[in-house]
Amino acid sequence: MQNAFDCIVIGAGIIGLSCAYQLAKARRTVLVLERGDVGCGTSGACDHMILLQSKAPGLPLRLAMESLEIYREWQSELQEDIEFATRGGMILIDKKEHIPVMEDFVKKQKSIGLKVEILEKKYLKKKQPWVSDHVIASTYSPEDSQVNPFKVLFALYQASSRIGVKLVRYATVTEIKRKSEYWEVRTTAGEVYLAQVVVNAAGVWSGEIASCVGLNLPIRPKRGQIIVTEPIQEIGETDAWDANYIISKHLSNFERDEISKRLGLGFAMSRTHSGNYLIGSTREYVGFNRSTTYEALKAITSRAVELFPVFSKVRIIRSFAGLRPACDDGKYIIGEDPANPGFFIATGHEGDGVALAPITGKLISQLVCGRRTSLEIDAISPARFRVASEVAQKN
């Protein structure tokens, strides 16, 4: 049949295209259905980091480390320049009370195998000579890396096309039904597609897609606002974040000022291939509102100048906001829905989508092909939501 495939992937962001590419490499026929155009959602409004230091010790960090290795392979495999670079990263500490928190965090990350350490002020100044004098210490990892997400999207699309993946743009999924041995997927255009496997990689819309098969996914969009500077000379050896970035991501109960807490503010500074600096960001629950706000942009720029006074002389050329698919329990969702064999989910990455796209696609391919996954991922399976639903019904 013309509209029959082994796999249908819903979503042509960086997660969806990674899944499609790696399924096609495993000799599956693949169709990608995208409600807009390639990368028009989260993947088109994000930063470019493969940041290992921000990942919680345990499975998130292991996923990121394996994902980084796949990116190294993709540099040649995808046959496109994805602007992969390993600049290393530093998390700046400007409050004494943050030092024991970061020391414990680093100790746990080192136990997983990450190359990371705490630097005293005199050593951090050698790597970041323009940093403010009130920064008292930092972490440092030589492994933090980056890519250009737009170029990765283009490279994945091109590589997928070469091995037979079909993409249909502006195809919003309206219905997913299980037939005897296959799935039937309908779109707003009235088209009907058939497949043995469906992969829900719809990002902030993945909850809507999951509801088509009776699964309640607690996915909400979380807004991240970012500013972009003019191209400037390199102001430090590495990219940099502050300890508030880690605290806002993993330790939300830590005492913070009212504005930073409400915005989920965490300083993140990274240099692009062309010399611009991306500086952010926020973590806000504001529904599907993708606009930027004066309050957030002021808070971001103020923190940037506070940590790097040199930014007071640098022009901002634009700002943007993107929506991140955040799961209420703070975990990723990768796996098969136990109530719907053949329905797989790859979502909930929040701000880690660029970093984890390669490993997510690899894991989905392994699961679909019935292979043992390279990492134990039961903890992030969508099965946890089925269990929670059953418990709630019993009570």
Give the gist of this structure:
With 395 residues, the protein is of the alpha/beta class. The protein is built from 11 helices and 18 strands.
Estimated helix fraction: 25-40%
CATH class of the largest domain: Alpha Beta
Number of structural domains: 2
| Proportion of residues in extended strands | 15-25%
User: How many E strands?
Assistant: 18
Question: SSE order in H/E notation?
Answer: EHEEHEHEHEEHEEEEHEEHHEEHEEEHH
User: What is the CATH third-level topology name of the largest domain?
Assistant: FAD/NAD(P)-binding domain
Which CATH architecture of the largest domain would you pick?
3-Layer(bba) Sandwich
Strand-pairing-aware structural class: alpha/beta
Uncertain stretches: none
Report the major sheet: 8 strands, mixed
Topology:
Layout: E1 4-10, H1 14-25, E2 30-33, E3 49-50, H2 59-77, E4 89-93, H3 98-112, E5 117-120, H4 121-127, E6 137-140, E7 145-146, H5 149-162, E8 166-168, E9 173-178, E10 183-187, E11 192-200, H6 206-211, E12 219-229, E13 239-242, H7 243-250, H8 258-263, E14 268-271, E15 277-280, H9 294-307, E16 316-327, E17 333-336, E18 343-347, H10 353-368, H11 383-394
Parallel strand pairs: 1-2, 1-11, 2-8, 4-13, 11-18
Antiparallel strand pairs: 3-7, 4-6, 5-6, 9-10, 10-11, 12-15, 12-16, 13-14, 14-15, 17-18
Helix pairs in contact: 1-5, 1-10, 2-10
